Amino acid sequence: MRMTEAPYQVLLYYFYVEIADPDAYRDEHRALCESLELLGRIIVGNEGINGTVSGTVENCQKYMEALRNDPLTAEIEFKIDPEQGHVFPKLSVKSRTEIVTLGLGEEDFSPNETTGNYLNPQEWKEAMDDPNAVIIDTRNDYEWKLGKFKNAILPPVESFRDLPQWIKENREMFEGKKILAYCTGGIRCEKFSGYLVREGFEDVNQLHGGIVTYGKDPVVQGEDYEGQCYVFDERIGVPVNSKNPSIIAHCVHCDEPCERYINCSNKHGCNEQHFSCASCEEKSQGCCSDKCQAIISETIS
Ligand SMILES: [Zn+2]
Ligand SMILES: [Zn+2]
């Protein structure tokens, strides 16, 4: 699909900058989004802004202009996807202490002071081939199950805030290595790579703009990314690799390659996001397991 044919866009962005009064900024920002009929999720904090929104092409353009015209966020970068309609059910604009939750508390710092080296997609591609490189996926387990970089280390954490503890327990995997950290759009790695630097690791690098930017780069074209990229909207997954694409996820029931990510119908007892092909979804009534299916069958009868 050509960009011009899609009437909507999805924007993904973040910007680390000191915002003196996050609550006031949030209220003003919400009014801006409402006036442009944008939907999505935005978090504002003392340390900056993090958001993803959908809207018409025209309104998304106006939104980007508004942020670029504000001296505070003039340097902000947007990742833009063409879409046929909104990909969010509503608009949420919130203020929080951290715009991504690494949960460092007193130890918290600004990535504008400490962060890892930035690698653009082509530099990242080369670095992945370095024999001393270790690639670490800084996202949550349900994200990398849908797709990841080839040979990446996949920490089994359900939440970003659990990552520092996991690093402490697995330090030897990274000692003396060229560390390559990546996430969806780059925001988590800004903080996480800074955390690694502060922990004393020396060769810490991050994929600038994340998987999304890597997939859009005209030279690397997503090469050696396996599967799709998990996104926090109705699309759930977006393609990344147009050079050597593959599917890494499998239907939990029949084990066929499958990227349909659905929530278990046992909503209150489980709700687990799992891969299921269409025919298995029907047979299992949308459940992730026989156990869950037995529970919902009981509730129905
Ligand atoms: Zn199946
Ligand atoms: Zn279940």
Describe the 3D structure.
With 301 residues, the protein is of the alpha/beta class. The protein folds into three domains: 3-95, Alpha-Beta Plaits, CATH 3.30.70; 111-238, Oxidized Rhodanese, domain 1, CATH 3.40.250.10; 261-300, no CATH class. 27% of the residues lie in helices and 23% in strands. It has helices spanning 22-35, 57-69, 121-128, 141-144, 163-169, 187-198, 210-216, 278-283, 290-300, and strands at residues 8-16, 39-45, 48-56, 77-83, 91-95, 117-119, 133-137, 147-149, 178-182, 204-207, 225-227, 229-230, 237-238, 261-263, 273-275. The radius of gyration is 20 Å and the shape is globular. The structure holds zinc ion (ZN) (2 copies). One zinc ion binds next to loops.
Task: Provide the fold topology.
Layout lengths: L7 E9 L5 H14 L3 E7 L2 E9 H13 L7 E7 L7 E5 L21 E3 L1 H8 L4 E5 L3 H4 L2 E3 L13 H7 L8 E5 L4 H12 L5 E4 L2 H7 L8 E3 L1 E2 L6 E2 L22 E3 L9 E3 L2 H6 L6 H11 L1
Parallel strand pairs: 2-5, 6-10, 7-9, 9-10
Antiparallel strand pairs: 1-3, 1-4, 2-3, 8-11, 12-13, 14-15
Q: How would you concisely characterize the structure shown here?
A:
The chain is 27% helix and 23% strand. The protein has nine helices and 15 strands. The chain is globular, with a radius of gyration of 20 Å.
